[in-house]
Design goal:
The chain is α/β, with parallel strands linked by helices. It has 10 helices and 7 strands. Helix 1 packs antiparallel against helix 9 and helix 2 packs parallel to helix 3.
């Protein structure tokens, strides 16, 4: 693995930052929909693919399987810890590179597909980064940008108000922590325009619905409890909620409480995963 620069991304990413566990939880939870998104690309054996922001490597493994036996799948990520986890998961023949996505050491015009999920909004200049990734593609190659939750998630089907308050509190927390505006936080919804502004053509988009209901499978339970209730919400939201709302949210998110949300028979969770795909122009 090459050494990456110690630059910080828009959301505080550096080579030393580690949220491996959260990535692993999400990939296990959303595996059916992520695999369906990969299948929708109809990758041919022999295709050369880059997972840009490969994280802990689960999706990279699925991409590698899709282009086997004669293709190549490689991954790039900024985080040392994420790549360490990916290296432990993946076969040695799958290359991993530590680098900033806007300044990769890869050879231009050498790939057929760049896949990047829940990553591009971490960068200071997403349009410039997509243009840079586009230079890695052969003529007619594609960039696939995926992002979850472009439409607000549904956690508490029985209490839309509390759910909305929690979502707004998360946005306020991120604005304060990273010095971002509301426009900065929501700009990721414009995946279609991002690909168009970066010079891609034949841009298309497809949204997959991630739907789970009680009784929950183990992966969904782990993601919602550890990734969301504890890892995203929790004590950090206290300053952004009224005392009554924070107490109610805490009771719903605590497995020791009788009203724990994930044990309710009417628990119904909805999330979206959107994949936007653009193609390089011939002769680029």
């Amino acid at each position: 693995m090459a050494t990456a620069p110690a630059d910080s991304g828009r959301l505080g990413d550096t080579p030393d930052r580690d949220y491996s566990r959260k990535l692993q939880l999400f990939n296990a939870f959303a595996e059916p929909e992520l695999r369906a998104a990969i299948d929708s690309l109809r990758l041919a054996p022999g295709t050369f693919v880059l997972d840009a922001g490969c994280g802990t490597g689960e999706t990279l493994a699925w991409l590698a399987a899709a282009v086997a036996p004669d293709g190549l799948a490689l991954g790039i990520d900024l985080s040392t810890s994420h790549l360490r986890e990916a290296r432990g998961l993946l076969p040695r023949e799958i290359p991993l590179v530590q680098a900033d996505l806007a300044h990769t050491p890869l050879t231009g015009a050498s790939l057929d597909l760049v896949w990047s999920v829940n990553t591009i909004h971490h960068l200071h200049d997403p349009t410039a980064a997509v243009r840079a990734l586009g230079t890695l593609l052969r003529p007619g190659g594609r960039i696939a940008l995926g992002h979850s939750s472009l439409v607000p998630d549904m956690y508490f089907a029985w209490d839309a108000r509390l759910e909305r308050m929690a979502t707004e509190a998360v946005h306020a927390y991120y604005r304060d922590r990273y010095g971002l505006s509301e426009q900065d936080l929501t700009a990721v919804r414009g995946l279609l325009g991002l690909l168009q502004s970066a010079g891609l053509s034949r841009v298309g988009v497809r949204t997959f619905v991630i739907e789970r209901r009680a009784p929950l499978d183990a992966h969904t339970h782990a993601w919602l409890l550890d990734g969301i209730f504890r890892g995203t919400w929790g004590e950090r939201l206290r300053p952004y909620l009224s005392p009554a709302d924070h107490e109610e949210l805490t009771l719903l998110c605590d497995p020791q409480q009788p009203g724990f949300a994930l044990r309710r028979s009417d628990f119904h969770f909805l999330q979206t995963f959107t994949l936007a795909v653009g193609t390089t122009r011939a002769g680029r």
